[in-house]
Amino acid sequence: MSDDDAPFYHGKISREEAEALFRKQGSRTGLFLVRLKDAAKKLYVLTVQKNPDRIVHFLMQKEPHGFDVDGIRFTNSETMEKTMETLRDTSTWRVKPLHPVFRPGYNPPPPRPLAEPKVSPKSMYAEIEDDDIPAPSDMYDDGSIPVATTPSRRGPPPLPSLDTTDTYDVPNPIDIVEGGVDEYDLPSIMPINTYQNDESQELPQTYDVPNLLPQRSYENTEIETKQ
Asked: Which tops the pLDDT comparison, 127 or 108?
């Protein structure tokens, strides 16, 4: 592509016309175009929107090695396209030509659609090994797959089973041995009096409980019998 075919090259236009094109596009920072100043001397002008309120102009000289911009020689500046790329990549160049202003009649090509990545069936299931796929013999009668008991490497470890009740040795509350209660201090609903044949312990008192039913005494009474 020659320099005259660059989409941001407008040929012989004035400074005022260039600034009017920037205002039509909102004076956005980074707008730029290149216009012709003197064809005999191979002089061009780079016009850049430095900020929304200021437009700057740099003289470009075409040399055998490439373009010099504002009296500065740059490498990789053989064409206008490469010179703009070099200015964008040079950290010491503060006014970056970011957004080209296309010349009238130029239709930019449509953006290329992003190519969808080609995924083969093998790569889609690359992480699944043959032993991970259950065999028909490993299924229940209804077709469901039994839950794996080992953790899977493709997911979080399974939760611990809830059926992990520990067993403890709990003493029998009525475990009474000869000579007294076993050595467990367990509360009892009804107090149990135990004795260890100790004479110092008081035995429970006895009470004479009257019989509620009256008893008839036959002592010293002759029993009449029928003859």
From this structure: 108
Distance CA 1, CA 180 (A): 114
Question: 78 — alpha (psi -120 to 50), left (phi > 0) or beta?
Answer: alpha
Q: Quick: pLDDT tens for 30-85.
A: 999 999 999 999 999 999 999 999 999 999 999 999 999 999 998 889 999 999 99
The first and second tokens of residue 53, run together, are 């309120």
Distance CA 220, CA 227 (A): 21
Q: Is 29 exposed, middle or buried (0-12, 13-18, 19+ CB in 10 A)?
A: middle
pTM of the model: 0.50
What span, in angstroms and rounded, lies between the C-alpha atoms of 34 and 21? 12
32 in Cβ contact with 8 (< 8 Å): yes
Q: How far from 7 is each of 14, 41, 43, 109, CA to CA, in Å? A: 18, 22, 18, 11
Which of 101, 97, 84 lies closest to 25, judged by CA?
101
